[in-house]
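Predict structure. Chain length: 407.
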Amino acid sequence: MKLIKKDPFQKYLISQDCFSIVVFSLLLFLHSCATKKDTDFIDVESKQVESSLGIDEKKFNKFKVEDDADESQKEKVSAKKVSKSHPSNEKALIKKDDSKLRDKEASPKEKSKDKKVVNAPSKPTSKKSPEKESSLDSDKMEEGSLKEDESIDPYPEVFSQYDRISKKIWPKAKPIIDIGEKFVFQVSYLGITAGHIQMETRKPVKIGGEKAYHFSAKLRSARYYSYIYTLDDSLDSYVTQTEFIPMKYVLAQRESSQTVDDLQLFDREELKTYHWYKRIKHGKLKEVELTKHIPRYFQDSFSALHFVRSLPLKKGDLYEFPIVTRGKIWILKLKVERTETIEVMDEDVSAIRINAETRFPGVLEKRGDILFWFSADEKKKLLKFEAQVKIGSVAGELVEYKAGEPL
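Prediction complete.
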């Protein structure tokens, strides 16, 4: 794969308030250059973060992550079938020169069977979500049916406005969930390789008895400049299967100058987010704990990337929905610009180019644009991204890919 080379390397610090894995995470890599071991990612479990933050487990027990027994059984059965029909080379990641990727993809007819249409959020309920997903009839959802929390503050009117726009988008979403699917992106800043990001779709879990998708990302700076700055970060996002609404977000930053534990819980019954943040930097401790209202329809800063992938993405399409991160609301506006051919992993690939614009409500000046390229097929794999920052630009391209098993 060829990566665009531009200007000399320059150090830059991340802005945690911007949208998406690109703006939320990529700038963390701006301190170094790559080596062959840059994709040896670490694992930081959610339990470690929660323990560090001192979360009241009894109070927030409904956000406890548990294995999905049904999916575990399916996995065992699937493993037996694979061991009989496929050799051990299924374990290897597909590298740049691997041409077998196309063979693993299903035909258009087969792919269409794997797609699921998510339900848009309806009235808050404590009942267990149904096992099967179905399309939402948005006409049945009245605009004035939003829940209000009279014990603290009424549901913000601006959120009702967001909901009216978003509820037209959610029924269009058809999540692409391939368990075990992995992406590795090489990230550059000012033309110099700064690190790698690994994104993975993990097996489903249960949170409070409700089935949830599990998306993870690992961020690693290059070891060549480890004497300047090192970084090993882990991120997990859990999203409801029925509505594709975030339930839990966990970020662990392990860097040479600081450690950060960041937990965000999203209560869809109370329409609130609970956020805990702990940072130790240069020996100084900073802790934040807050509770804020949230809209009924939203994504977190990482699940948004998967949600975009689930949309039709036809030329000229416009989408707009909220991103909730650390109690703040950002508005993401997407425009599907065109389909073009780009080079990825030494191959010419037809790709959908999308312009993503982020704004903070009440601020007239936009925060910035991010360009994404998704494959122009039914899998809509993320292939490439570019983002302008205060000094220069960040770019990333797919360098490794492993296909997953459709859920």
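Summary: The radius of gyration is 21 Å.
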